Amino acid sequence: MTFTLINASAGSGKTYALTQRLADLIAEGLDPSEVIATTFTVKAAEELTSRVRSTLLDRALVEEARGIDSAVIGTVNSVAGRLVKDYAMDAGISPDVDVLDDSTQKAAFSAAIARTAAARGEEHSDLLARTEHDGDENDTSYRPRPSWRGQVRILANAARTNLLSAEALRAAIETSWQEYRDSAGLPAPGPDERPRWLHLLDARIQELAADLDASRSPDGEPIAGGPIAARSLGRTGNDLESLRRLRRTLADHDRAPWSEWMKIAAGSFGAVAKRTLAPLSEEIAESFTTCGAWQQDVRDLIALVLDTAAESLDTYEQYKQDLGLIDFIDQEVRALRLLQESPRVRASVASRFRLLAVDEFQDTSPVQLALFLELSRLVEDKIWVGDPKQAIYGFRDADPRLMQKIIAALGRGDTVFGTGQIRNLTHSWRSKEHLVELTNAVFTRVFDPEDTGEEQITLEIPALRRQKAAGGVLEVWQATKDDNRVVSAEKHAAMIAEQIRQRIDEGAFTPGTTAVLVRTNTQKDAVVAALQARGVPTAGAAHSLLSTREAQLVRAALAVTLDASDTLALTELVTLLEDHEAHSSWFEELMAAPDRETRREVYARWWEDRTLTGLHAVRRACIAYTPEEMISALIDALDLPQRIKRWSGQPSRRRSLDALRALARDTTERRRAEGSPITLTGLRSELDAWEDGPDLSGLPDAVWVGTIHSAKGLEWEHVVTHLVRDAKQRDQSWGVLVRSPDEVDVTAPLAGRELLFWPELTVPAETAEQLADSDFAQRKTTSETEEAGRLQYVALTRAASTSVLAIGGPRSELDALIDGDSPLLTWDDEEIHVDRAEAPLPARVTRVNVDALMEQDTTALQSVADPLSATDIPLRPEQETATQLAARFRASGVGADGVAGSVSEPRMIGRRLVDGGGPQWERVGEAVHAYLALPLAHLDDTQRHSAAGRLVERWAVARAVEPSVLIEAGEAWAGFLAEELPDAEELTEQPITWWNEDDQVMEGWIDTLLRLPDGQVVLVDHKTYPGDDPVRHVRERYLGQMATYAQALAAAGLAPSRILIHLPLRGEVLEVALR
Amino acid sequence: MRIEFGWSLDGAAWADGGGAAGAARLGPRGLVQLLQGRLGLTRPAVEPAVRVAQYLRRIAEADHPWIRESFAVDPWATASTMLAWRDAAVTAGARLEGAESDSERIAALGAIESAAPRLAPGAADDLRELVDVLTEEVTWPLGIEILHCHEDPASLPGLWPRLLQLLEAAGVVVERVQPERQERPELVIVEAEDEWTAAETAARLLAGRADAPLQLLAGADTVLLDQELHRRGLPAVGVAEPAAHRTALQILPLYLSLAVAPVDVRQLAAFLDLRVMDAPEDGREQVGLVPARARSVLLDALAQEPGTGGTAWQKAMASLEGDEELSASGLEMLRALSALVTAPLAPEELTPAQVREVTAPLGARLRALGQGDPSLSRASTHLQVLLDVLEEYAPGQALRPRELAQIIESAGGRAGSPFARPEATSRWRTCSRPSQLLPVGGDVLWWGADRDDVATGVIWDAAEVEALTGLGARLLAPAQLAALGTDAGLRGLHGADRIVVVRTRRRAEKPTAPHALLAHLAAGRATAGQGVEEVLEELTLSPAETLGMEEFALIGSRRPLTVPVPSPIAPLPSDLTKVVAPAPHLLPSRLSYSQAEDLLGCRQKWTFKNGLRIRAASVAAVPTGNRMIGTLVHAVVEQLVSSGERTPSARRISEEIETQVPRLASELLLPGREVELVDLRERAVRSLVEFFDRLGAAGLVITSVESRFEEPLILHLRRGDVTVPFVGYRDVVAEDAQGRPTVIDLKWTYAARKYPELFESGEALQLAAYAHSLHEEGTDVGYFLLSQGEFVSANPALDPHGRPTLDIEDLWARGTSGMTEALDEIGAGRVDARSGQILLDAGEDLSTPRTKAQKTYASARETARAEGSLVVDARCDYCEFSLLCGMRGDVS
Ligand code: SF4
Fold this sequence. Notes:
Chain A is an alpha/beta fold and 1075 residues long. Chain A contains 38 helices and 28 strands. In chain A, helix 17 (366-378) links the parallel strand 6 (355-358) and strand 7. In chain A, helix 10 (194-215) runs antiparallel to helix 13, helix 12 (258-266) packs across helix 13 (271-287) and helix 26 packs antiparallel against helix 27. Chain A is globular, with a radius of gyration of 40 Å. Chain A starts with a strand and ends with a strand. Chain B is built from 32 helices and 25 strands. Chain B starts with a strand and ends in a 7-residue tail after the last helix. Chain B has a six-stranded parallel sheet with strand order 10-7-11-12-6-15. In chain B, strands 19, 20, 21, 22, 23 and 24 form a six-stranded mixed sheet that branches. The interface between A and B is large, with 191 and 194 residues. The structure holds iron/sulfur cluster (SF4). Iron/sulfur cluster is lined by residues 576, 602, 604-605, 833, 835-836, 874, 876, 879, 881-882, 885, 887 of chain B.
């Protein structure tokens, strides 16, 4: 048993280390099929496999390299999924399930709990209205209302990934409420004062109205000396309106949101209204949380959400079972349970695997961790590779703290695994000197504020690289403004884009080696737009598929191909295809048509246009296409690959084409998993509703723009990190918290975890403060800050040569990563200072006034011609290409036309065996055929009987014929041969291959070849014809086939001298003479 | 006869050269078939789905505890998995019958094997049988002189070494062949970013070769490559995967999905829309399972009432019953379909007998249509296999929906692709696996070269291996099995002089990984000290690197190139107006409010939609979302009022909604939509209670709902007066005690601000139109917002906002003059697109955020108001004509 932990900071050659280690072990005799390894992404799995293979080949271990495909290497999900599938019967589940991915899982969960959620939602409709938790989970608007169903889903997932049961969720109702009440410092519940408040409000409103009337004439003119000053009239008038509206809302006692009451207490009213409301508003502010009804609502809401989540666990389970589905969490949980509970599975896994490798262990979720630990107990040798500093998947339930505790325990050696061997990789193989210095300084300060040196943080440049890695460029791009406001995403993006444009222009950067890392999608979209505005090729563009010309064409073509009456789609095609005859006259043509009939003719003419003829063939063939083939066929019929060459932005357009195919494929997959039929009509409506854009990531020769999460594991020469001025503060006093105990047991890593849920509510400011100070909020805040630190670590370690901090102001969000008042990072014109660092680092600092920048006209980069636009063919084939002959043909498919030959009268060789057909004659024919294929001359009687009996039985024709009939046919044939062609050697079922003069190939079996003593060859074919006109039948049906065989034989040097057709069912032989 | 036998040779060409007799190249499957013929062991093929069903019965009888739970959860998948394991074990040589073992899987397989129900033999049994028969009975010559083996027989798994031994014993010379050539071929890898570029490169390579033939190794489907080849006048390679997702194999599941409640109208629409054959004569409607004549009639019915069994559907059916031009088989199909969807089966009624019954009309229709059409006969076969499978079930046994779906899917198998049609050529010979390459030197073009997920076969653990070995099996370790494939591939590749790989880095948005053998080939080309990764990188070209100044060049293949004249997509016009010759015939035969709105909002929209009747496919007209809900709630109000209740209770309203949903919004009854339905019901009930209460409190009594009116409207066009009927439906008309009418229009919308704004700015044209047509002095008007439960009205009893009274006559006059002007201009051939133009003129477009666009319209409205005219926002963002008018273009 060994346990090796490789602690691999960013750029320290993690994959190399892992690959070498695996290769070493295999070289030492580990069988590749005994390896089980998990990676974070599919790509990483592929890469690991191919790296290990290459390394083995490098070491000339060819045999071992050949077997590497038998190793189990994949993502955590796929490896867990594989175990679950292999041991499905042990788990008592279906062995064939469809896996829900992250996006389909969400939909499946909603569908599964729809019935329950509908019922509970209806039952608690008023509560949800009062607490404003009746929002839509999929609401994407700026400030969506909280959705209790969304919370249910999050809770259910959290419970599952932390192995918490329905009971645990139910138990959390009481603990969550207690802790909420205590943390918020809620007083003992008092009476419900709302009726009184409403009453008071009425009085206030009347008072205000009266004051207004006294201060304003009916036509709105101020009355001098009125109780309200003229300048406040407008505001007060509006306030009165709002109060009246508020009053109407509040009147619906059962449903009026609590937050509306809070509005009276803390509403944004003008001074007059505030004064008028004063005693009431103070009372509400003071006694709001005392209100027993409110407290009950909070409690009920917590109970509703947690209880529904508990119930949903079962409902969701049943739903998946009915449809044969499994999601990622299930795969892991089930795999874990199997390993924990089934002795057979434990033994089986232990016998199959000797090495467990875990890559990127820092990003594992609690249940994944438990799974790895369980596997680790069964598998001899373990190598875990990762970097706790790069754990950035907290939002997907990864728990870095749990991980750290486990690592510490392994290091101490007091676990069942004994002492783990911990290896630190300390060399930087990625970045240049100054970049390494910067990250060393920054992250020592962030991750090790006490300077304990316990954590592996700093890297050094290895001697081997020292020369190559010298220098490196650090830059700060600082946005300045005319005012003191926060730099908007748009302006921040403009600065970044403009600087990049200039550097590309100067030749310092190239698009393909540059990346911009951002935190949010809004930032990403802004940067992409700003880069595009400057003509900088960008990977990550955010346009929707249907806003591209190519997708518009395919959509219209699909519609009109499926339904000829879709004149809208047809007209669109005409307007979109600039070479369509009617392209510029379509409107005129339609307007000129006096009636419907004439318009129909116009449409018919358009459809016949040369640009659309390709679609005619698609229309004919489409019933046989899969959705994906349909898309490919349409793309070709529209000549899109050639058209695109004439447009701008080829690479991304070809991505659109690929996206269309992916859409067809995904739709097909999804529908299949849902068990719903897959139709081209369905494809059409999917495409119509499609809002996503093509995947433009990794577009070559383009600046990469993306979130830090998606930059994980990647590197570039030049990396620009988008940093805002102030770190974003989020309200952490609501949501889900999973609390783990301080000590963990590696054999039960998830024991003692508990879950809390607090709803998102509007509360008085004082209460809000108390909630923010709670252990609940503090824990959430701390883990978010820590995660932010790790995220920035990932960001700042992506660059090889140039690291740019693009900052939206005079200080950066990085400062929030450390405690205390001093900033983490400061800079002057030439240097960056890191808090507590020994020496400043040389840097190039550029300050950009973004307000001025926005005023300037943008300059665009010179566009570079795309070499791939060169072509060797015209836009469209000049004429319909002649249909090409099929590569293969069957002799039996060759017609008798053009074959000169004659058929002799039949010669009787035996009894007629079958009369006129009958329902089973085809099978009888097969049985007879099979019997005649045997070398009957070599079979003794018993063998013939048993062979004939067997064939009759196997072809299930016992009701039609006796075995003796077969024997009789064989004897008749043998008799004929003995008489007609004595001493012929009989070769049955002979393979024949022939290329004809059109390069078509025929492969087939010739029933019988007779080789005569003089070397001549006779071709024989047994035909199961039971009818009455054998001569004509043979002439019409088989002449072509015989001619083909004859030619084929001739080509093989065996030209037949005679051709016989044997009709065993009729007991006849005919001779064919070809001329 | 001489046989060349190799582990990966199934599917390889039999021979080389011009022709050959008595020689064939066979893989395991081919050899088994050959020997079956030699030994008289042939039999008709059994559908795999039927075998699964048979095995399923065996499992049920054996009732082995190890799989009991899985079997209860998912009988079909459990049976097919167990059967696959069983077949693997049998192929490996194990005799399972009665096998007992500590290993539960083996024990279960043994128990099932001993169970009574019949199991048709499969490929595994064929092999077993061959071995048995050869061992025991056969003494006759096999007619095979020599068997050239690519592999060492001893390295093969399962019964194979034994079989080859037996052949030897039966007089066949079994000889291991070493390929004639084993070189270290040159390697060139072209890696494209997308498959189109890869296809273009490969096609250029093939087109530009001076006659030297090559071998084409098609490791991936060649659909795109073939398209490029055709464009260069070359024949297709014709490799494409068979699939289950072809219409032919979806007819049955689609039809059956309609047989079970709740019926999904969208699937019903898809079925109606299904075209299965091209039109007999060009230009006519394609042929469907549902006759073309009926298709649009029924789709229109669904567009009116997106549910089943409603009056629209019944009316449509009635009209079709009387249609004499419908074929008998077409009419039968229609009747069956209608019966199916109006009275669908409850899921628990789904039994084999029922399935048989409901599919009978489909079978008849397929036969009637399908004479000789391969796709339709495929569909017929599918149905037949389904019925065969169901034979294995008790007729009255309830089938779970998932089980039926699984059976249908298995019964369908996979249908070949129309693209799988290789075309004749002497320029290359094609194979699909590296092991099938001939050792003839020369060039190999390897298309695809993606990592193939090597089927590792069933994995048995140590205990199982031991148990199976005890039962006579011979199992290879997974690494050995993997090596078998790798070795065969390398042997094939090493027979070439040069290998050119053309591959794509991604396909359908998924990254692809290179084939494992490339690393092996690269290892062969590495110089001392060079790593494989390095070699691969060095040998890899991008497609751009194959392009010279005016020529494509790759391994001696050349094609002249030109750079096409760029023809960038035209930018969007800044003036959307279209001017053509006068078109005086473009007059509405009648006008409705929505037409009026279009005429005022956007003349092009009206022209496209009403003047020229440019239409999307009928299937797209089946409503959903807010439009569907709007219709539903309208109908509910209509029913409530016509049943005579003044203030219906919440309960009554709720019941009425329940009644109307199946007819008008049946998709809300589908599983997973419960939340939406409840939400809708809650909202509608609350809102309608409010509606009736308020009306009552305001002393208003509803006098009519959905009342149709038709009014001659005289338009003073420039070319003279024209009278067109103005028609519409007034949602609700109520009267106060004095008999003064109030016209109320119901709106289901989430845009809560739109109608109050229209009302307050005096531009609620729809209300004016409906009120004007009453011709009663003092008519009041208002909206009721169904989703919000609020009135928008000047009557303080209905709406406390104190809104100004709408000047109906003035507004109507402005409306008619706007329409008149619009029709004048359209008739003159000058058609502008005001809605879009307003945005463009403000420097905005379709991507402008809605809130900003709203402001733009507001100011346009204000300007117009000052001139006494109207501006209507025709909602370009939802308009289906935005490509035609020029509002929507290309992003780049
Ligand atoms: S998109 Fe706008 S401008 Fe174009 S037709 Fe439709 S409504 Fe008119």
